[in-house]
Amino acid sequence: MSRNADPKFWDAAKKHLIRYGGTFEPAIIERAKGSFVYDTDDRPILDFTSGQMSALLGHGHPKIVETVQSQVEKVAHLFSGMLSRPVVTLAERLAELAPGLDRVLLLSTGAESNEAAIRMAKLVTGKHEIVAFSKSWHGMTGVAASATYSAGRKGYGPAAVGSFAIPAPNAFRPRFKHADGSLDWQTELDDAFNLVDSQSTGNLAAFIAEPILSSGGMLPLPKGYLAALKQKCVERGMLLILDEAQTGVGRTGDMFAFERDGVTPDIMTLSKTIGAGLPLAAVMTTAEIEDAAHEKGFLFYTTHVSDPLPTAVGVTVLDVVRDEKLVDRARISGQKLFDGLSKLKDRFDCIGDVRGRGLMLGVEIVKRGGDGQFREPDHDLGAAIATEAFRNGLSMNIVKLPGMGGVFRIAPPLTISDAELDLGLSIIGKSIEGALSGR
C-alpha cells in the first residue's frame, strides 16, 4: 500500500487544517528538486505549475539555496525602518530592468503589493473608484479582494465602495465580433468604459489588470489592448496598475509582459516569480507618483517590508535569469510547448483552445454543444483529466469558472528541459485518453 494513504496523517489534516479552497492532492509531498516534486513513496511528479506559479527557477536551485544559507546567517529580518544592502540592490536592479519605474517598495505577497498599489493610487489621485476585469484575481485581502472577480465574492459582505468590473477580452468566446467572427476588442472596450462612466461618481482612481488573466482562464490581452486601455485611463485621470505577479521576470518571453506592447504602467506589482518560491513582492512606480504619495503621507508599514532574506533571494533570481538567459529560454521553450499542445488539440476534439505566451499557457477543455461545435464547457472532463494526470505523475492546475470549460494553467519552471517538456506533453496525451476511455 502506498505510504501516501497514511491514515494518521490524513486524519490529523482533516481534524486540524482550515480548508482554504479546493481540495488537497492525494499525496504527501516530502521533497522537491528541479522540475519535480516527490511524494512519500519517492514518486516523481512533474510540476507544470511551478508550485503556486512561483518556483520560476524550479525547486532547490543551487544558487537560491546558497543565498538563503548565506543570508540567514547574516541577517534575515530587521525593524522596518532599517535598511540593508540587499534591499537597495534589488530596488536598483529592478529599476534598471523597468526604465521609468524608478521607485520600489519591497513586500511579501501579491495581495499585499496590490493593496499598496491601490492605496497609493487612491492617495495620489484623491479618488477612490477602482476598475478591474471581470475574471481577475488580485488577492484575497481588502481592496485586492474587492478587485478580484473570478472567485470568492459571495458571502463576505459588501466590497469596497467604488469597485467596478469590465469584461475580460476572450478571443475564444468573443462578446463583440468582427465580420470574420474574430474578437472586436476595441468595441468591447469602448462599450465597457461607457458603462463604467455611467456608474462612476467622477472618482475613477485606477484600473488594475493582469497582462494574462491567469485564474480567469489564462486569457491574454490582445496586441494593442494595453495601449488602448492606457489611453482610457489617461482620458479619465486614472492610473494604470499592472499586476505582473505571474507574468513578470521572464515567464512570457519578455522580462515583463508589458514590454511586448511598449506600454509602461503607472504602477507595476510583482510577486511569485521574483521570489522563486519565497514570499517576496514589489511595487514599482515613477518618481513623480512616489514623490506625490510621500508628500501626502503615504503609509504602508508592514512587519516584513524590506526584509533582507527574501530581497537577497530576489537579487539572486535576477542574476540567474540573466546568467542562464532564461527570458530567451522561456520564449523558445514556450513555443515548443505551444506547438506540442497544439498537436494535442489536433488529436483531441475536447481541447477547444490553446493560448498564452512563453511558458504561461492555457488549455481549455470543452464538449460538443447544440450547434455541433466544440465550444461548451466540460468541467467534468477537465477534472477527470487532472486526476488522471496526477496519477500519471504530472501536476497541472485547472481553473473552473462558470461559462468556461476546465482551463489548465501550464507554467513550468523556466529551467525546465526539453526532455521534461516532452514528458509532460506525453502524460497530458495519455491522461486525456484515460479520461475519455473512463467515460
The share of residues in helices is 25-40%
Structural class: alpha/beta
List the uncertain runs: none
Number of strands: 18
Lateral arrangement of strands in the main beta sheet: 4-12-11-10-7-5-6
Shape descriptor reads globular
Largest sheet: 7 strands, mixed
Rounded Rg: 22 Å
Number of helices: 13
Report strand %: 15-25%
- Provide the residue-averaged pLDDT: 96
State the end-to-end CA separation.
27 Å
Describe this structure in words.
With 439 residues, the chain is an alpha/beta fold. 38% of the residues lie in helices and 18% in strands. The chain has 13 helices and 18 strands. Strands 4-12-11-10-7-5-6 form a seven-stranded mixed β-sheet, with helices on both faces. Strands 13, 14, 15, 17 and 18 form a five-stranded antiparallel β-sheet that branches. Strands 1-2-3-16 form a four-stranded mixed β-sheet. A hairpin with a 4-residue loop joins strand 2 and strand 3. Helix 3 packs antiparallel against helix 10 and helix 11 packs parallel to helix 13. It starts with 6 loop residues before the first helix and ends with a helix.
